[in-house]
Amino acid sequence: MPNPPRRLSRTLHTRSLTFFGLAYLAPMIILGTFGVLAETTGGAVPTAYLLAFAAMLFTARSYSRMAQEYPVSGSAYTYVRKAVDGRFGFLVGWTALLDYFFLPMVIWLIGASFLSAQFPGVPEWIWIVAFISATSALNILGIKVAARANLILVGFQLLVLACFVGLSFSRTADQGGSLISTTPFFGEESTFAGITTGAAIAAYSFLGFDAVTTLTEEAVDPVRNVPRAIMLTVLIGGGIYLLVAYATQLAHPGGVFRHVDSAALDLARLIGGRLFSSVFLAGLVVTQFASGIAAQASVSRLLYAMGRDGVLPARVFARVSSRFLTPVLNILLAGAIGLVAIALDVETSTSFINFGAFTAFTAVNLCPIVLYFRSGRRRPALGYLVIPAVGAAVCAWLLSRLDEHALLIGSVWLTCGLVYLAWLTGMFRRQPPEMVLDHADPVHSAAARPGGPPSPSASQTDEVRPE
């Protein structure tokens, strides 16, 4: 019999997982999209983020529930195949690959565009290759190395944001304005339609809290630490977004800018001068780098989970380096696909992401509902029925708000997945293959029992087993 696949190394605690999630969220992204949101909402960006924040809390709670039920890698793919059906789970995982594969591409593309604007003599493709090479190297060296890098990079982002908020408040006070005002929440040109459309855009800033679940098998005590990190990522990220949106909208009321796409950079120059605008630009580049590390690590773990199950070729996707204990081939594949960014723009690349993300969110919200009815309604109705139902409805609505281009690309990708699944399962007559993990490991054996509570001590037993 073939040797079992080598397992990942458990090294991550709640803090590291949370910083990983925050790096994926990229807190400074709010300033990169502020101009567009202010224009869309008529100067009510904080209200849009408040609505998006409330919506994402419901979905984050569903992810936390499923992370406790099934403490294994794979995120939405694993949760749906175990709670609902293997075929449905494969399609959700396949669709989520749009989000996981192309988000790193967009991140690297945005970072390269910032640097190209600052250094026009350097071709943009050089910056893209540099981003991919650096993030790939850190992820190959190990998740612990990547986590330490994220800790530093996220810390720098938060420092720049703190300066931006402080300078915004200072400018407001210098202009004779009040620091406590309802004006940022209700602009003179705001409409309900504009604010709800803005909320759909603002929700994209939260994409990535779910990436924490892809590191479940590298987390110490995953049953406790992963759900905590999910909720902390959304709560901290949402709090940052609301504070920055409020301070920025206070310093610049309304939604009219000379250059919408670079509104935040213009504001940085206005409130802090040339020196701060340079620091601000450095913060934006650091944001893209940190987020790229987290995004590439996540897609490599999703591919690992699908390869280990056998729905993707295990010889390629389920391999873990004996030296670095990381899925090196998956990391390199994500980097290679990222090179496609050289031929694309941000708008085209982004259209690939949103369809996969909101499809996965909607599906994960359905999982606790299925478990609630399968268990004979013995689980608490609030956590397994009411909250997930609200989350599913909101995410389905956000999915419907995507533009026609995104829906078309997503539908084509989903159709390809259906064709592959039909071949894999004999025209859907049987379940896709699934890896049966060693029942000597309490985490994995608990995860194999739908609804079975995992052992709290299980996190300490998952050691790397050499081939």
From TrEMBL:
Transmembrane segments: 16-37, 43-60, 88-110, 125-143, 150-170, 190-209, 229-248, 279-304, 324-346, 352-374, 381-400, 406-425
GO cellular component terms attached to this protein's record: plasma membrane
Chief location of this protein within or outside the cell: membrane
Matching Pfam families: AA_permease_2
Entry keywords, A to Z: Cell membrane, Membrane, Transmembrane, Transmembrane helix
Subcellular location: Cell membrane
Membrane topology: Multi-pass membrane protein
UniProt region (Disordered), positions on chain: 442-467
InterPro entries: AA/rel_permease1 (IPR002293), APC_superfamily (IPR050367)
A GO molecular-function annotation: transmembrane transporter activity
Protein's name in the database: Amino acid permease
Protein source organism: Streptomyces longispororuber
Lineage of producing organism: Bacteria, Bacillati, Actinomycetota, Actinomycetes, Kitasatosporales
